[in-house]
Amino acid sequence: xxxxxxxxxxGDLGPGPDGYTVCLDDSCNFVLYENPTPVVAAVIEYKDGxxxxxxxxxxxxxxxxxxxxxxxxxxxxxxxxLREVKEEVGLDAxxxxxxxxxxxxxxxxxxxxxxxxxxxxxxxxxxxxxEVKIIPFEKVRTWPTGTGEALRKFLRSKGYDPEVVPFR
Length: 168
Ligand SMILES: [Zn+2]
Fold this sequence. Notes:
By secondary structure, the protein is an alpha+beta fold. The protein is built from 2 helices and 9 strands.
């Protein structure tokens, strides 16, 4: 959330200690903490020995990545990641494990990544997702941000050491 003025006293905001934005009025102690937003991410193991990656219509044509999404109010992260997989690619998945969490500084997000498994039919009804790619473990390449790290950790647990290719 961004503010033009202090939401407490309507004073001016400016730089404060430790990189935080603060209220510049001495009688006000408002600090804009900008706590990271949690985002769930799914490494989808699909049928035997594949990973399913999705393409979002907002991304360049050849970029395929994990299914991700925000948690709903009071939602458990495991429920959120299964809901996102169902909404974005139409699969009834099951949690196979927690991969870890990674900070995504550019978006100020905390990525909470799970390994999920699915073997049903892909159904693309979410207008944001227009294509998926089903890639055998040995051909998957990853990327150097949090979701890419999660995918790499998963593949390493399966005995593969994927190439890391920066997004262009
Ligand atoms: Zn203030």
